[in-house]
Amino acid sequence: MKKVARIIDQAVGYAESGVCLATLSVIIVLAVVQIVMRYVLSASLPWAEEIINTLMVMMVMFGAARATRKGRHTEMDGFTLAMPKPLRIVFLTFNTLLTLAFLVIIVVSSAEYTLNAGNQKSFMLRIPMPYMYMWMPVGGLFMVYEFIKTIKSRLMKTQNKEETA
Q1: In whole numbers, what is the pLDDT of the chain averaged over residues?
Q2: Residues 47-91 pLDDT 10s
Q3: How many CA within 13 A on the CB side of residue 8?
Q4: Which residues contact 24 (CB under 8 A, 6 or more apart)?
Q5: Count of C-beta atoms within a 10 Å radius of residue 130
Q6: Which of 64, 90, 80 is nearest to 143 (CA)?
Q7: Which of 11, 59, 68, 139 is the most exposed place for a label (fewest CB within 10 A)?
Q8: Residue 165: its pLDDT value, please?
């Protein structure tokens, strides 16, 4: 069972990294082509902005999940280490629950937003807007997954810092 969970976790990590790499690569290529088209050839690609905006949302959502996986989000270590240990445990527990609630709200509200887009289509490419909006709840689910995975280590790490500091 643990082996299957580890394989799934690795697949999720590869998916996050792959999406970040692919979206950034396409954004760079499209932006450079758009600049050359606009300023050298005096013509632009009117659809490029729609694609770039959607890819940026994907990159941000999957990048935030990847940052959670790597432990690269901002922490309040200095503030929490200054607290007495019992207060620190309460604060960290509250902070963790508040963050998890915030992530769930992001997933639920962005899923509602995506589902309520109905038959709207993008202006230039005529892509259904739910396809463009769906990356917010999908990326949010990845963030929830990564955050839940780190809850125990987050609480234990900060509790044990007092002994190592």
Answers
A1: 87
A2: 999 999 999 999 999 999 999 888 777 776 777 778 888 888 888
A3: 9
A4: 59
A5: 16
A6: 64
A7: 11
A8: 46
